[in-house]
Design brief:
nine-stranded antiparallel beta sheet, single chain, mainly beta, 56% strand, 12% helix, lipopolysaccharide transport protein A fold, 187 residues
Length: 187
Amino acid sequence: MILRAFAAAAVIVLLALAWLALNGETRGPAVPATATVSSQTPGYSARDAVLIETGPDGVPMYTLHAAQIRELPASRVALLNQIDMQFREADGQQWNGRADTARVIDEAARVDLKGNVALSGLLPGNAQPVRITTERLSVDTHAAIVGTRDEVTIDWVGGQLHARGIVARLRDQRIRLQSQVHGHYAP
């Protein structure tokens, strides 16, 4: 009887050793896995997203509405589609913009709008809004400066201007057209 118990214990030990030999560590100690982040790996993404930055008074400085947003973490750039944007000047004047796509750079300090860009708001001395259209427009959200080197059209009641390039300092209520300025005004 003791011999049978000893033989059964020996068989169990041999089976356990065989199992460990087949399933145990044969390549050395475990090495922690490292994740690599490619420039195309989204950091975050969302649909029907709204980004809002508020000023010291708690009132929104700008609001971005996007049908889709995704961040590329290696570059810290967010890509947005179907953009509606509102931002306000220090005096409370609100400007509205739209574009097909946008790149939000440097934690939203700069927003580069692209494709069917339209921006509208009030200029000093005008009760009617002015509309600025172009294919590309960069917006410095902190300094409230918008600009482009592309062709731009400015429409307002009774007039229209065409130019290549614009720099609009919205807080100072100044617009500077860069070159090739043509237009008409009907009083």
